[in-house]
Every structure is written in structure tokens, then in C-alpha cells.
UniProtKB/TrEMBL annotation:
Keywords: Aminopeptidase, Hydrolase, Metal-binding, Protease
Disordered: region residues: 149-171
PANTHER family: XAA-PRO AMINOPEPTIDASE 1
Domain Creatinase N-terminal: 9-141
GO cellular component: cytoplasm
Keyword Ribosomal protein appears in the UniProt entry: no
GO molecular function: metal ion binding; metalloaminopeptidase activity
Name of the protein this chain belongs to: Aminopeptidase P family protein
Amino acid sequence: MLMQTHEARLDALRKELGRRGLDGFVIPISDEHMSEYVGSYAQRLKWLTGFGGSAGSAVVLKDKAAMFTDGRYTVQVRDQVDGKLYDYEDVPATSPAKWIADNAANGSRIGYDAWLHGIGWAEAAEKLFAKKGIELVPVDGNPIDAIWDDRPQPSLNHATPHDERLAGRSSADKRAEVADWLKKEGYDATVITALDSVAWLLNLRGTDVDSTPVALSYVLAHADGTAELFIAPEKVTPELTQHLGNAVSVRPRDEFEPALATLSGKTVAVDPQHAVAGIFHALAASGARVVREGDPTVLPKAIKNPTEQQGHRDAQARDGAAVTRFLRWLEIEAPSGKIDELTAAAKLREFRAEGGNLRDLSFDTISAAGPHAALPHYKVDEDSNIPIPPSSIYLVDSGGQYADGTTDITRTVWVGPGEPSAEMVERNTRVLKGHIQLAMQTFPQGTTGGALDALARMHLWAGGVDFNHGTGHGVGSYLSVHEGPQRIAKPNGPYPGSMTELRAGMILSNEPGYYKAGHYGIRIENLVLVVPAQIASEGDYLGFETLTFVPLDRKLVDRSMLSEAEIGWWNRYHEQVRAILAPQLDGEDLAWLERECAPL
């Protein structure tokens, strides 16, 4: 009989831990690739606790348990997880390892799945526990899998070739670049574990993870330019085999761990940011010399080649037309009070699908009405869904996956009737000024995202307010909507990518915001491409080319707060919006576009 309640599941886990001689267990949201989004088979935390956020973890001890989330999920975790079963703990004020050290008895054996945790976490936890007489134990098989009777199986959908005409480079060329790096550094091989890195290196895509077109697989890349792809045989088609060619051998995914055991005496580079602890353990046991090095595909993947750049522009143009049609529909329908968040999100997807070439959304649409807009990472579902209130702010953060590009856009709009409050207009205008400041900025080569972050906040700071998320993240080419290594964020914040040098060809988001808890939220997001700056300069300077073209809501703008330069940016931007979108629209949609793109 299936366990229906989270209380029954928690009880069953404790009994399973007891059978294994364990006093506790750590449950992250993770898969064997440390992916941001994981397949249904890996949603162990959600099955156990009910928590549906994208970041968090739990610890279960014999007599108590706790949920760990950051500020994004303070409200959601309390809505979804039973407080009688789990304590609510805030990260980074505490962490699973600190909590265990404080709450587990001396001599406790705490289990963890080494194929779901990074090596850094495992080593730090082990060191902390040793001071308290607590043992960290890698489990043989995940205990949750032993009690999850109806656990979904990993996807066996086919992996497909990604056309070189869209990729802009052949897989052979990319593998040769990795091989040159291996030879230069004196390494024999590198383990590629991040799913988007595998997809980029071999020019393949898949449908194994919602919102990210990747296939569950690993790659061992060798210094001679050859590679081994470990993937379920059911996923491999003759077309894929032909695409990969003779230099890539295809092996069953379950042979990956045994293959690591054959690397005795070899020098193997492994990225501790992307590879789970289990890989390090297997290599160490084999007698390989393990070197902790960054994934060699991450930087070249982030620097888009000219073909990928043009693909993004083309995808953005189609996407912009779809979002524009949606915003007109919303303006007409939402003031009735009969449109709810889920209906709006579904309608936006419908417009994207009608625009052509849509493969998937790039993440779950943040369709946020009223006070929900004040939650930066709000996720609407049947339980949280509310009607969009008339006379309120509505925020929609969404994106599409197209074969030629990945999009991500946020628009904040006023839903009538009536007019927004003076405070709403003032706050939105400050967000807009920060967005424009960053969009217009030029900077010397070698500048990091952290050095630019304050530009997006300066006008908010001048008004005594701020926002508690990064200003910009990298974006992939028909890959992950959140792609490293670059980031625009506070240098002392939780985003290490903020210290990465920005290089021509990188794509980032530009998304400052403002959030008044319990009332409303504002965010303005476009994607930008780092390009050589067209200015007279001493040395090499870079700037941003805007890629996203959708009208901004003029009802939320106080023109008197904008400088002449900012008004000039607004008008030039909307001239471009009109030029790119008008050929794709007609009738009332075109008339609405013309109205919204009139000079400010």
C-alpha cells in the first residue's frame, strides 16, 4: 500500500534508517549531476516533506527533523511542510551540517547519499562532525528510494543531435579544445558531469529535465580528443550514433562508476562545483590522481559564437511578439477580476506556442498577482493560485526554450481600472533607472559583474530601498536559463560568479527589482549580450547590446524622474521594439504596439 501522508513517509524513513544502523539522514534537492532543476525521479525532498521549491534540504534524526530554506521560501515552506513534523530553519543563519552538530548525539552515525552532495559539503560536514564525535556515513543506495514504492523512473526519452547550423561549432572542434587544455595541463582525462556541459560538448539535447533540454548522461573526455558518453541505451538512436561519430564511444549509464575504477594511475581533472562526492570517492578508490579543476567547457559555453548570438536575436524576436500579444490580452481581460495567475500563465504559453518553434518553457512561469509579486521566486500552483485583482500590479517572469535560443523576460504591469499609487510609480521608476543605467554602461575589459552591480541599485539606494537577489545571471543557448560562470551581483553576496570577468559574447539578464512584502513587487528584466563598446577609449572597452524587445509599462513611469539620457534610452528602445515586432503583428495587436511604443 502506498504511503499517502508525509507523516507516514517520515516514519518509514526512520525505520529504514534504523535497519541500516543510521541515526540520521540528509535530504537535498539534487540529482547525480547537481542540476538546478531535477527530474521527477530525483524529487526525494518533495516526496518526503511536500516542499516544492527549487532550493532547500531536510535533516531527519531519530526524534526530530528540520527543513532548511533561504529567504526566498520563508512563506512557501510553511505552507507546504507540516510544522508538527519539521522545524523551520533559515539559511544562511544555520545549515544542515551546523544543525546536526548541535542536535545529534555524540556517537551518532549520519547518512548521506554521496551521489547527491558536492565534495566540498561532504568534507566540511565531516570536519565539523568530527569535533562533536559524529560520523558522516555515505550510504549504499538511497534509503528514500527503498521506501518510495511508486518512485518514477529516470526518463528514457531519446537524446537528439543539436544541429551544427544552430550550434555554430562542431562537437569535434569542441572536444579538440578540451583535449588541448588537458594536454597543456598534463591531465589524462576530465569528467564532465553537468548535463548542460555534456549537451554543449557533444552537440546533443534531450527532454529528461523540465525546462532544460538535456539528456541524463556523463562524459569522460580524454587528452587524445576521444570521449566516452555514458547514457541509457534506450535513449540512443541510430541518428545520434551517427552524429557522435567514431571518436565518441557510447556506453550504458550504469557503467559510469565502474569506468572510474579503471583510471588507476591516470591524472583526472574533476570540477568540485559540478561533480558529486561519489565521483571523487570512486576515483580515489581506483588509485587515480584527482585534480580539482573547473569544468573546461563552462567558459567557452558561456561565450556565445556569432551563430549562437544571431540565434538568440531570432528567438528573442519571436518571443517578444508572443509576450506583446499576451500583454495586450492581459490589459483587456485582467481588469474584470476573472483572470487568475494560472490562467494567465497558460495563456502566455499558448501565445509562445503559436509563435512557432517553442520546445518548452525555460522555467516555470512566475505569474504573480498582488502580494505574490513581492515574492521574487513565487511559483503558482493550484493551492497558491489567486485571481489577478483589478487595480493592482501584476508581475510576470517567464521564458521559452527554442532550438535557436533561450529567453527570459520580466514585465511588471498595472492592471486597471484606475491609476497606480504614487509610491508604485516612484518605485518602478527607480527600478527602471537602475535597469537603464546598467544597459547603457560601458566598462574596461577585465571588469567583473560584481563591479557593475551597484549601478542597478544606485537609484533604489538613493530612495532608501534595495532588492535581495542578484541583478543578472548568465543564459545558455537552448540550454540552461541560469548558466555560469558570469553573474552580476553584490561582490560579498552568495554568488561566486560575481567575480568572473565579463567577456564579449556572454549573455546575462539585467533585472533589478523592488518588493514591498505583502503588497506588491516590481522587476524589469531584459537579456543583454556583452559586446565591444562603440566609444573612443584608451584600451579595450565593452558594453551591452539589449536582446529582449517588449514594451515597458508607461503607466508605471514618472517621466519627471528621468534624465534626458534616460528618456533617450527609453525612446530608442521602443523604436527598436516597434521595428522588430511590427512585422510579426497585425490588427489590434499592431495598433496596441504602436501606442505603447510612442515616444515618452
